Amino acid sequence: MFTDAPSPFDHPKADIILRSSDYVYFRVFRLFLSLASPFFEAMFELPQPSVHDSGDEIKDGLVVIPVTEDSRTLDHLLRFCYPSTLAEDPNLEDLTDVVQVSEAARKYSLELIEKKVGNALGNQAILEKEPFRAFAVACGSRMEDETRTAARYTLRHPLMPPKVKELELITAIDLRQLLHYHAKCADAVQTLTSLSWMEYHYRATGDRWLTDVYHYGEHCDCPRTNKYRFKDNSTPPDWWAEYMDATWIALRDRPSGTTVLNGLDEAVKKARSRCSRCGYRVLEHMTEFTRVFADAVENLTTEVGHHIRKLSHRD
Ligand SMILES: [Zn+2]
């Protein structure tokens, strides 16, 4: 129930104790907190009532100040306040931590720390896992770069954002901007159906792995389809056409390079089950092909991002 915080917040020479909402006692030095925050500085400058006649909780002869943050948030916050020789800045990989520490930093006027916490929004793990929440937090805090980055990661997901609490942090205009960006990217990506990017990439090496029924001296048994035709009127294997059809549909909803890469395994599996010749080389060829395809998608959505300004501005 009542516990003591771990090192370095258990220092015997500490001069004040902060008690978290879940009853963990943090022994801290006023000086570090005062230097980091005008809020703490002002609080500690108030005449401290004598230990004997105040109603304050006293522990080991030190005044205990109750705070509303829980121990996890307080631990993170204090590590940011302490000099790095005593406590390293925490690596925030959970968005809930980011939100809570950031709120606490704002409350205690820890501006520099608020900024540092904001940088955690650029954390890859957070962006991959919860881009919408990261977007809402960054946008709600008017952090332009982080907002843009998070918006890019939302392209890996369907247009309709999940219901997350942080959506309360942004306005309907902000949300509209995000949906607009998503829709623009989806439109832009559909222009790739011309396959000119593919022609460009294979201009030197050729796309014979896709079009030749005789290749490397072996006959390809892949069933062919007329659905896609290349310039010499050659036709690709049906598993490739199926991959492309499915990918165009998926890209409408999730216009991101990862969407292109997601279909790779299934395409390879199909090719291997339908053709003995393609079984050998399909992984190599399709890995190259999907990388080029994904790059083309990413280049286009980057371009759209440049044209959509002020993702995090309120005008
Ligand atoms: Zn084949």
Automatic annotation (TrEMBL):
Residues 14-90 form the BTB domain. The lineage of its organism: Eukaryota, Fungi, Dikarya, Basidiomycota, Agaricomycotina. InterPro entries: BTB/POZ_dom, SKP1/BTB/POZ_sf. CDD domains: BTB_POZ_ZBTB_KLHL-like. PROSITE patterns: BTB (PS50097). Gene3D superfamilies: Potassium Channel Kv1.1, Chain A. Signal peptide: none annotated. It comes from Serpula lacrymans var. lacrymans (strain S7.3). This is BTB domain-containing protein. It comes from the Eukaryota.
